[in-house]
Amino acid sequence: MALLVEWFFALVNFWIMVYAILISFSYFALAIQSFRAMRKHIRKNAYVNYRSILSSPLAPSVTLIAPAFNEGETIIQNVRSLLSLHYPFYNVIIVNDGSTDDSLEILTEAYSLERIDFVYEAHLETEPVRGIYKSSKAEYKNLIIIDKENGGKADALNTGINVADGKYIACVDVDCIIDPDALLRMVKPFMEQSNRRVIASGGVIRIANGCTIEDGRLLDKKLPKSTIELTQVLEYNRAFLLGRMAWGKLNGLLLISGAFGLFDKEVVINCGGYDTKTVGEDMELVVRMRRYMADRKEKYLVTFIPDPLCWTEAPADRKIFSRQRNRWTRGTIETLKIHKIMFFNPSYGVLGMFSYPYWFFMEWMAPWIETFGLLYTVFLVVTDRLNHYTFFLLLACVYFFAIFISTMAILADQLTFRQYRNRGDRRKLFQIALLEPFYFHPVVTFNAIKGNIDYLLGKQSWGVMTRSGFSKGKKKKPVGFALKRQKVEERRHRRFGRKKK
Amino acid sequence: MIEFIKILWIPFQWAIDFTIRLMHGSLFERVVIWFLLIMLVSVVVMVISILFDHSITDRNRKRRVKAYKKLDHLVTAYIFDEEARPEHLEELKTFLRRERESANLLLKTMMDQLVNFEGELKRSLIGLYEELGLVKYTRSKLHSRRWEKVVQGVREVSAFNQTRFNPDLLEIVRHRNKFLKMEAIVALLDSRKYNSLYLIANYPQRISQWEQLIITQKLKSLPRNELPSFGRWLLSEKEDILMFGMRILRIFKQYDGLEQVEQLIHHPSPYVRNEAIITVRELLLGHLLDDLVEQFEEEPTANQVEILNTVNHLGDESHIEFALKVFEGKYPVLVKLKAGKILEQSGIPLVAKSIEDEIFINHIKEPKIEWRY
Description:
Helices cover 52% and strands 15% of the residues of chain A. By secondary structure, chain A is α/β, with parallel strands linked by helices. A 10-stranded mixed β-sheet of chain A has the order 3-4-5-2-1-6-11-8-12-7, with helices on both faces. A two-stranded antiparallel ribbon of chain A has the order 9-10. In chain A, β1, α2 and β2 form a beta-alpha-beta unit. In chain A, α1 runs parallel beside α12 and α12 packs antiparallel against α13. The radius of gyration of chain A is 25 Å and the shape is globular. Chain B is mainly alpha-helical and 373 residues long. In chain B, α2 packs across α4, α2 crosses α5 and α17 runs antiparallel to α18. Chain B starts with a helix and ends in an 8-residue tail after the last helix. At the A-B interface, α5, α12 and α13 of A face α2, α9, α11, α12 and α18 of B.
């Protein structure tokens, strides 16, 4: 019996070790692949003139779809930001998803909207549309507002897809700050396709908390102050620059962030649009599109661009953060369950043999194995079976590897896009990398476990996601030249009674 | 005091212990310790580069900007001050010998200036390029193994109009790196070597929309009367070349070779037919309109929409019946809307039989909705 118990412990130890080695190796391999892909992308793009798209009749048409629910506070600025992107043929569809605030009234007043009769082909089933609005002003001719019954983000996006007339659709979160050149950069992979059809493209999402934003434009990039926001900056860097970039290069990308992604409209419609029954609709759509293409044996690509194209607000509140992570976990499980046929299925190529298993073992199972590891360690301590020396040696390995990967993410940003020019900011990020495994990772794991339990209990809701908005807070007092200019203008105003411009 | 020394000694004790274990421990122990050491050293190296990379790059950038300004001044002085040319030339030669990466910086300065100059000034700048022997740098770049170096070389050839390198460019046009291939084609077009276009017309790979865009933009910058006829491209067997050919014909309003369009509206590929329909519309080939109307039923929705756009653009009263038939028939919404627009613009009253019809007609009449062709 004792021998059997010993064998059991040896077996558990062995499998935990194998898992740890596999996960570390996959992170390392992805990071290296990302570095290579990013270097190639940057070298290549140093010679590309994106502006040539602006004056070309060959530029494909794009429709930007932004669902909005109770965004009244910031909607005017957000729409203005979307309307001022640099691209020759694009229009913007804002889908008011049954907001209970005065979003529609605010929009109507700001953009002189008038209700029109509009007919479209309902390729995708959605909640009823209450009305479609267009501006009476010619300068907003590329803006369409759809007012519909509440049906959730996926349903709102599907409504937008029905109305869209562009060849490609860009699905964005209305409160994101999109880089003015984002469409030019995103459309390029689609234009470059020759033998393989590009069906979707994603870009790096950055965190806007702490940045200076005015009129929907990002003026200054700074790190946020609170620890939870700071840690998310590091986490996003790691996920996008080291993870998705590599998967994009391997054509194994399963997720394009719902905050900003460009899709081939025809493929989206053919595969049925966004799934309204899942809370992870962004991931589910990409997987379904890939499956649709693979089932038809058509050659395709899902690309990823490392350029920082979209800035979003990360949750600054622990409760909201927990809800977000909980939802992400449920979304992952739902998607993996819907498309379980792809699991180690060689007919899906990289998708079936690498991407899906990676998400299954390294994303879904990781929190479970971590929790099991923790409980197992406690058990070993209680039963006095723990070899302290080996335990601390392995713990040090795990800790240093975590720091190694986080530092690589900071370095990747530093060597490529240098988003944080201040040395203090970079030092702060490194400090976070040192501390994150102790205070942040356990919270993420806990929320993932909670998400799993909620999934088993059949919880389907998104949870309330409140955002504080970018333009809040006191306006900065002018200093230096700005202060001088203000004083001169005030003096002139007093003297001549002129209005300040 | 002794206690304090003992505490200080702990890390050293650990280091010694680790070293002993690294040399004499079990395989597992040795692997883990090596792993830890590698991680530690890598993190330290990365942190140093993260914290100090900016200072180094900023310093280099400032140095480059300073050198660029100096070179800019020297080159301008060389061009405009003919009497002092030998002195400026000497100064430039000294600079070339002294500074690291000076040749690349000088070439960049000269290329930036070339954009602004024409005629005699341009010739003197090219003369300076020859005089300083910068050709050898361009040559070495053209034969480099690194593609980004080759791109720089190709751009220099194009900027300094070095036709002697045309054979090298023609070689590069056949390169498997598509980016490099395009650079060479653009450079050849710059030196009016239009045969490079025929090379891509016969290239085994598909020509992407991005490549089409680059070529089109380049062709737009060249004198129109010098452009070759692209009508021959319509004889190609490749779909992408046929489509690109028709796009170029439309953009540059070339009318030769248009008899091929008549064949292409019956091409097996719906994408080629779509381009052919647009070509019929934009190059005003009204005599093909009846053929398009005849094949309307067999076309996919996108082509049906284009046919209706073409009818709207080129049609006459004889096509009203066709539009009416489509408007009243069972077709996709977009197709019916286009047909309705034709009727509305022809002054045919649209009668609503139901509320749905009324909404439909209101959509057609709505001035705020854009109707793109």
